[in-house]
Amino acid sequence: MLERLNQAMDHIERRLDTSVDVGEVARVAATSEYHLRRMFSALAGMPLSEYIRRRRLTVAGAEVLAGERTLLEIAVRYGYGSGEAFARAFRAVHGVGPGEARRTGAALSSQPRMAFRLVVDGSSSMRYRVVHKTEFNVVGAKARVALVHSGPNQAIIDFVRGIGEQIKELLEKLSDQEPHGILAVCDDLDPSRAEGSGLDYYHGVVTSASAPDGMAALPVPAGTWAVFTTSGSVPEAIQTLWRDVFTEWFPSNPYQSRPGPEILRMRMSADSSEADAELWLPVERKLD
What we know:
alpha+beta, single chain, elongated
């Protein structure tokens, strides 16, 4: 998998002065575009689209300082429809406009070319199982919130606090299959998974029932799920588990992620500082 990812990075590098088709990059990596975006974000710490943009403007910055082409020629060469659009993007990365950079020889930022390598670390193992589920509904209270990679998500905390006990009791009764009980379900995440991007959050249950009046329903088709378990402080243990799944488990197993909701089942300690958790992720077998 890492070899394929490095081939994909080479493919991107050869096309920085043309359009980069992420679908074609995914084919080079022998995976789906959906999984490539998620895998790259987890491994690199930034969305794939942001990496491509920063690499393109790094190379463009070198041409600006070289002075061999006009600024408009450079803008067009790297896919910008006007000098103004290029200048805005250039300033966002380098902190200075291209004209000023050329006149003053200003210091520019540089996004290094990425390569992935295997780090062998056998200090821990990851417990998981693979489950096939028939179609089901996620039923519960729903809110649109921003994605938070590290630390508490205050928007979710406030939303859950505002849900009445009667609604929670009703949801508990609707739960009729695994994973049981009230769950945290995230869906419709931005493909970039960038910090602050939006997602649909459901405080609900997995059920065969329809949604009662006033509640939201998310139909989920039949499919395969990888189920991971962890215990520890909240939310750090869950955020670490999610990271490890994408940086360690997926590269070592014959599965890739597929579109669908992420489901988290937590059982909190008495003081709510720690939890036993199950993370359900939709997966499919890798393409041969």
